[in-house]
Amino acid sequence: MDAEGNPVYDMTKPIYKKDANGNIINDTSGNPIQVVDEPADTVATLISKINEASGGKIKASYSEMTGEFTIEGIDTGAKNGFTIVGTDKTTASNALDFFNLSGKDATTGKFEGTDLDIKVYGSDGNPITSKAIDDSKSSNSFTIDGVTYNIHGTGTSEMTSKTDTQPVIDNMKAFVEDYNKLMDKMYDLVTEKKNKEYSPLTEAQKKDMSEEEIERWEKKSKEGLLRNDSEMRKFMDDMQGAIFGDKIQILSEMGITSHQDYNKKGQIALDEEKFRKALETNSDKVYEVFAKDSSSVMENMKSTVKKYTGGSSSIFAQKAGIEKTASVAKNFYSEQLKRQAETIKLLQRKMDNKEDSLYKKFAALESSMNKLNSQMNHFAQM
């Protein structure tokens, strides 16, 4: 017996029925009354049999230090109770009652499971209610809004949650980097000077050059083609307006400004710490500015990009065409090329006609000269 009067068992010895004083009770023949059927059963073998028979769903254990015999279900919650049954595998058995196990329903013989019940209070002391919180939990470990809770005991606990802002910051940094690369490329194109030493090649010139030489030459000859292009410059200005517009002040407070470096015209700068603070203190405002509705930064940018590149009717499509659309064959530059080609054909016809006319005149002149020479020779012989 322990200090509280509970029987203490030797793990290695057979399990016998004992009286209130811990003495083994004998039967009428003077033999100790065993609690289980098999004479060789001990607390250790009983624990092993319970654990094996349950397929790992029930865990039995015994502490020689505290004298406590414990049987618990691995699966938690009210729906995961269990019953110790007899050899018929149906009727509840009292075979282990001598261990004084608690939690057993006196009527059904079932060891009932229980759900976790928690209450959450805000910093103002008022309860926070929501279905996710108020619903009973079948496990001591559960997740709400991406936060995992592990409950180890009853009582109260203070907790503070903090949004993981790093993924959003990483996405914003990637966006700023990609956007600035685009603006940098466009700025280079509209400020690039024309290389006057490289005129477009004629077909005759190409015949005397290798493919590599032609490629290098044509690359040089195309430099400066978009210098001061009005549509390109307007696109850069419109993108700045789409981002900042009437939000220039609030974006500045969030750490997003127009780049101050003159050589980085059209680019934006990100103050990472300011942006992090904005996310941590007022993430709803950040969402509102960037993505909430049609007036948000991202929607404004989307509309601007669509205006310039969204299909055959867009500004860039009408100017130079977009691959795999009808605008490839019909746009400002293609129409110019057609007109130039028609002009060249017209001039070629005029030149051919002029050439024919001159040939005819030359032939007539030559014929007249021959006649004149013949006449002069005739007079000379007289």
From TrEMBL:
InterPro entries xrefs: FliD, FliD_C
Any matching Pfam family: FliD_C
Coiled coil (residue ranges): 330-357
Secretion signal, residue range per the UniProt entry: none
UniProt-listed GO biological process terms: bacterial-type flagellum-dependent cell motility; cell adhesion
Ranges where the Flagellar hook-associated protein 2 C-terminal domain occurs: 136-374
Keywords in alphabetical order: Cell projection, Cilium, Coiled coil, Flagellum
Tagged with keyword Coiled coil: yes
One GO cellular component term noted in the UniProt record for this chain: bacterial-type flagellum filament cap
PANTHER family, alphabetized: FLAGELLAR CAP/ASSEMBLY PROTEIN FLID, FLAGELLAR HOOK-ASSOCIATED PROTEIN 2
Name of the protein this chain belongs to: Flagellar hook-associated protein 2
Organism: bioreactor metagenome
Name of the coding gene: fliD_7
